[in-house]
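Input record, target 12 of the design panel.
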């Protein structure tokens, strides 16, 4: 059987929909934006119906306009730690509470006791996030600020499970996709049951939990009406949803501990897999992955591409390409200017919800170009701070690291990353399709058309960046500045936040 997979990647900025073949080729790719609504100082919401119609528009367009073999399956991946209230048929009852939302911080903090801390760590690997950036907090936010939507919901699910529910007509979730509910014992791979003690410790309403299913095999068939609307065959399988960081690992070939990749989209993440449940709750927990018998290493580094978007707006730059072109006019090290990229706090390797960003070393000789280059270098240096922790955790030194996500469109950022990491960086072709490609690879594996061990050999590389020895001194000095100032900025951090 030959054909392609319709892969849906629902990011914070909106869906990217691609047609992907089993040899890794992206035949077509379309994107549609989705608005984020800021509610007061700490609330961030999106409209699930807007998400859905953006997906439909992008999918319909790519299917109609791109020459392709028959579509044989649909795969879905999305941003996570976000919560959508849904009916049993997948339709939403209210707005999605985004991962950036921190209105439930006090509730999450109230869940942490000496007893519950040990329970969460031992069985799940994560604790309720004091910041409120998880699904436990978001359930509380929905019940508090959207009580009607909460009451009408049959389940509170992640965006990928919401989309799969709309596609199939029934809602389900997996041990992997319910990560942020902290309700499953993750010591056993693909354990499709909730743990009653974890559910109780998280003060979750059992009536609002989606039915769990295996990470293996289809979640259901595509509804006939939706198939007709998209222009794809009726009855094709819809695969279970996946966390986008996991599909970014698969889409960049990091499916075992021997390989790692950096993916810079809205956020920045260093991705890999291990074959056993383990982790450090403070920085590197492991997450059950759809990769058979493996756990994803959750090395989330914080904001990535969103930092560049912020800088574009701050400095009045019209596009990312214009910003990167200006930055490329400045030498490595930004003439001593360092940017600490913690606009929403830091995650791995040193989680801190209160620390905030800063430019350090700014002088009269610096201009907008230096500020922009320092932003690109700051994201790369934050990853350089994380790399030794991940290598120690996986037991492997990575001489070569794949680079995917929208950030990998830039040759300049690829070279900056190589210089910051001190490692060879392979900038992938079609990097914006990294997550969609990973979701498609998982689907082809379940269909028996691909061995995940062969994925690395299918990836095409646009450019290889070797670290430039001439830049080592500037990068080392900048990294020392970043790491040494993190604890001091943490102590200085004060509310209210912006």
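The sequence produced for target 12 reads:
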């Amino acid at each position: 059987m030959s054909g392609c997979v319709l892969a849906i990647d629902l990011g914070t900025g909106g869906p990217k929909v691609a047609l992907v073949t089993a040899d890794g080729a992206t035949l077509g790719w379309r994107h549609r934006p989705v608005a984020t609504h800021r509610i007061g100082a700490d609330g961030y919401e999106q409209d699930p119906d807007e998400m859905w119609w953006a997906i439909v528009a992008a999918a319909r367009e790519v299917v109609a306009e791109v020459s392709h073999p028959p579509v044989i399956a649909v795969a879905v991946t999305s941003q996570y730690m976000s919560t959508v209230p849904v009916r049993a048929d997948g339709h939403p009852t209210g707005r999605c509470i985004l991962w950036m939302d921190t209105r439930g911080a006090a509730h999450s903090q109230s869940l942490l006791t000496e007893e519950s801390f040990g329970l969460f760590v031992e069985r799940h690997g994560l604790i309720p996030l004091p910041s409120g950036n998880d699904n436990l907090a978001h359930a509380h936010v929905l019940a508090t600020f959207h009580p009607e939507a909460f009451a009408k919901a049959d389940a509170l699910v992640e965006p990928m499970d919401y989309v799969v529910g709309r596609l199939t007509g029934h809602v389900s979730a997996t041990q992997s996709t319910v990560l942020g509910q902290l309700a499953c014992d993750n010591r056993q791979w693909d354990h499709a049951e909730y743990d009653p003690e974890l559910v109780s410790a998280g003060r979750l309403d059992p009536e609002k939990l989606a039915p769990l299913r295996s990470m293996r095999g289809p979640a259901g068939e595509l509804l006939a009406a939706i198939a007709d609307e998209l222009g794809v065959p009726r009855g094709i399988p819809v695969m279970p949803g996946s966390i986008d960081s996991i599909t970014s690992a698969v889409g960049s070939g990091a499916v075992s501990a021997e390989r790692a990749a950096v993916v810079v989209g809205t956020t920045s993440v260093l991705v890999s897999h291990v074959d056993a449940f383990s982790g450090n709750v403070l920085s590197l927990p492991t997450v059950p992955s759809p990769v058979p018998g493996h756990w994803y290493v959750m090395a989330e580094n914080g904001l990535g591409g969103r930092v560049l978007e912020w800088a574009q707006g701050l400095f009045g730059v019209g596009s990312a390409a214009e910003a990167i072109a200006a930055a490329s006019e400045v030498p490595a090290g930004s003439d001593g200017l360092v940017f600490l990229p913690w606009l929403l706090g830091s995650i791995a390797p040193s989680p801190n919800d209160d620390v905030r960003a800063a430019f350090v070393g700014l002088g009269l000789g610096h201009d907008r170009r230096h500020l922009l280059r320092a932003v690109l270098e700051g994201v790369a240096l934050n990853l350089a701070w994380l790399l030794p922790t991940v290598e120690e955790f996986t037991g492997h030194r990575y001489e070569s690291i794949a680079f995917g996500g929208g950030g990998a469109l830039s040759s300049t950022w690829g070279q900056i990353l190589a210089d910051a990491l001190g490692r060879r960086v392979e900038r992938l072709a079609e990097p914006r399709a990294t997550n969609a490609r990973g979701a498609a690879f998982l689907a082809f594996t379940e269909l028996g058309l691909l061995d995940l061990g062969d994925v690395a050999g299918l990836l095409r590389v646009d450019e290889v960046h070797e670290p430039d020895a001439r830049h080592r001194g500037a990068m080392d000095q900048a990294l020392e500045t970043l790491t040494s100032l993190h604890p001091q900025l943490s102590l200085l951090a004060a509310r209210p936040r912006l």
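Residues 368-394 form the longest helix (27 residues).
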